[in-house]
From TrEMBL:
It comes from Sistotremastrum suecicum HHB10207 ss-3. The lineage of its organism: Eukaryota, Fungi, Dikarya, Basidiomycota, Agaricomycotina. Zn(2+) binds at residues 146, 149, 170, 173. NAD(+) binds at residues 36-40, 46-48, 118-121, 210-211, 234-236, 254. It catalyses: N(6)-acetyl-L-lysyl-[protein] + NAD(+) + H2O = 2''-O-acetyl-ADP-D-ribose + nicotinamide + L-lysyl-[protein]. This is NAD-dependent protein deacetylase. The active site is at residue 138.
């Protein structure tokens, strides 16, 4: 009977029906999977959008192929592109978006279970989403170590180096220092693997601003129960969202979609207030 009711609520397949469902007794645990698209309106380019994407900008850096910026073997030979990117993403340059504030609002309303992000820009933290609700699946700039001997490297020191466009080297063995960002071929943090199974308790999954092309992150969409609505908010279709009966696809800019959803929920003022205070 619950399944029938949930299906009924979602039938409109639009923002109003998502709001209706969120206000119902069925929606307690909300999960988010996010990618670069939730930060583009802050001025941080995503990877794959043509022209504005980071990949096309990094072409100026003589990368053999764009993904090379996150490849350990390339990094060993030429760490400059990665550190140029790090310089670009330095905290303080960008302000969280309305979508980041919406995620915080979900947490304040007691609905957010876990926010899984592929982003390394830390904007969710800066928007005030509680640390314990965030899984940075691809790591972060919070810690760093030598790629040869593993010696940790001082956080203030690397900030100075990145700011000065210098490359940091290990104080013990002179190896290259790398922030604990997950490069291609590297395993995801333990926290990711520990948190992923909780998706089986999801009542609602938002998939926002991601092309769902990077694995294993993309596979999280399949861990939620079949009746759990999966809502894609993205400029293009992504992954298999749309293939299940309660899926909803909103092909719009995230900031516009979350504003409309907040309005339907009667949260628009709260949302604006949070964002203005950020
Ligand atoms: P991606 O592959 O570049 O996909 C981004 C998606 O977002 C695309 O499908 C776009 O259509 C969509 N999009 C762009 N702008 C908007 C918008 N305003 N509203 C709605 N949708 C939008 O990026 P993914 O995150 O899927 O790829 C995973 C990589 C990208 C991760 O490993 C990240 O570390 C990496 N990345 C992170 C950042 C960041 O931290 N902000 C920036 C660029 C890349
Ligand atoms: Zn070392």
């Amino acid at each position: 009977p619950d399944d029938v009711e949930i299906h009924e609520l979602l039938k409109g397949k639009d923002i109003a029906s998502i709001a209706k469902y969120m206000k119902s007794k069925h929606c307690k645990n909300v999960f988010i999977m996010a990618g670069a698209g939730i930060s583009t309106s802050a001025g941080i380019p995503d990877f794959r959008s043509p022209k504005t994407g980071l990949y096309s900008n990094l072409a100026k850096l003589n990368l053999p192929f764009p993904e090379a910026v996150f490849e350990i073997n390339f990094f060993r030979k030429n760490p400059v592109p990665f550190y140029t990117l790090a310089h670009e993403l330095a905290p303080g340059k960008f302000r969280p978006t309305l979508t980041h504030s919406f995620i915080r609002l979900l947490s304040e309303k007691g609905l957010l279970h876990t926010h899984f992000t592929q982003n390394i820009d830390t904007l969710e933290r800066r928007a005030g989403v509680p640390d314990e609700d965030i899984i940075e699946a691809h790591g972060s700039f919070a810690t760093q170590r030598c790629i040869d001997c593993g010696e940790p490297y001082d956080g203030d020191e690397i900030k100075r180096k990145i700011k000065g466009k210098e490359i940091p080297y290990c104080n013990v063995c002179q190896g290259l220092v790398k922030p604990d960002i997950v490069f291609y071929g590297e395993g995801l943090p333990d926290e990711f693997h520990l948190a992923a199974p909780s998706l089986k308790n999801a009542d609602l999954l938002f998939v926002m601003g991601t092309s769902l092309t990077v694995h294993p992150f993309a596979g999280l969409t399949r861990l939620v129960p079949r009746r759990c609505p999966r809502v894609l908010v993205n400029l293009e279709l992504a992954g298999d969202i749309g293939s299940r009966t309660n899926d909803v696809t909103i092909l719009r800019e995230c900031d516009i979609a979350v504003r409309e959803l907040a309005r339907e929920l009667g949260w628009e003022e709260d949302l604006d207030k949070l964002w203005e205070e950020t």
